[in-house]
Write a structure and sequence with these properties.
Elements (H helix, E strand, L loop, with lengths): L2 H9 L6 H12 L6 E5 L5 H13 L2 E6 L19 E2 L4 E2 L2 H11 L5 E5 L2 H7 L4 E6 L5 H11 L3 E9 L12 H11 L2 E7 L2 E6 L2
Parallel strand pairs: 1-2, 1-6, 2-5, 6-7
Antiparallel strand pairs: 3-4, 7-9, 8-9
Helix pairs in contact: 1-3, 2-3, 5-6, 6-7
């Protein structure tokens, strides 16, 4: 991975450990030239930079989808709330300006397009086949399942599905992404690798 991009990714606001980010980059770099990478759950763009570096190496494109109002666990009173991401005018979370700065500083806007909206709404009208789908949106059971249902049908045959924050043991974290993993395994995907909480799967059916 490009050293400058790696350093910017590691310094960006977010929750992607370096080893998982490196695995994300490797998967993106394997996408066929001209392919589309779709990220569901952008936050401030940390994981987006790993995907962008891989996409640039592969000759692919990244689309990242987020409503930028923060997931449930990012809201005031929750463990992962960051008050610096609250818009003082509205009192609401707003990570979009931070994403813009992340992409501009890294100079990856030639390979990354940000789509602002709820993933399940965008997924309804989406029509372009996806070579790699990275799911890292809301972690409630309802939202994680909604993200999966909205986007999994767009993954092309042989395409990759990456799921973040998979914790089989409830003592380690929430179970919603793990349940999405189990569903994907039952619906035509095979697991390819594990790095920390990141699982990489391939569509075989």
């Amino acid at each position: 991975m490009d050293t400058a991009l790696r350093e910017l990714a590691e310094a960006a606001t977010g929750f992607m450990p370096p080893d998982e980010g490196a695995a994300l980059h490797r998967a993106a770099a394997q996408v066929p030239a001209g392919g589309l990478i779709c990220e569901v759950g952008t936050y401030c763009g940390k994981s987006t930079l790993y995907l962008a570096a891989g996409a640039r190496a592969a000759g692919a494109t990244v689309v990242t989808v987020d409503h930028h109002r923060g997931s449930e666990e990012n809201q005031p009173g929750w463990e992962y709330h960051d008050s610096s991401l609250v818009d003082p005018r509205t009192g609401r979370m707003d990570t979009l300006p931070h994403l813009r700065r992340t992409l501009e500083n890294a100079q990856v806007e030639d390979v990354v397009t940000a789509v602002v909206g709820r993933s399940e709404q965008v997924g309804r009208w989406w029509s372009t086949p996806v070579a790699l789908l990275f799911l890292d949106g809301g972690h409630t059971e309802a939202q994680a399942q909604a993200d999966y249902e909205a986007w999994v049908g767009h993954v092309m045959p042989g395409g990759a599905l990456l799921i973040h924050d998979v914790f089989p043991d409830p003592a380690d974290g929430g179970q919603a992404p793990y349940h999405v993993l189990l569903r994907a395994l039952a619906e035509g995907f095979e697991e390819q690798s594990r790095t920390g909480s990141l699982r990489t799967l391939r569509r075989v059916l």
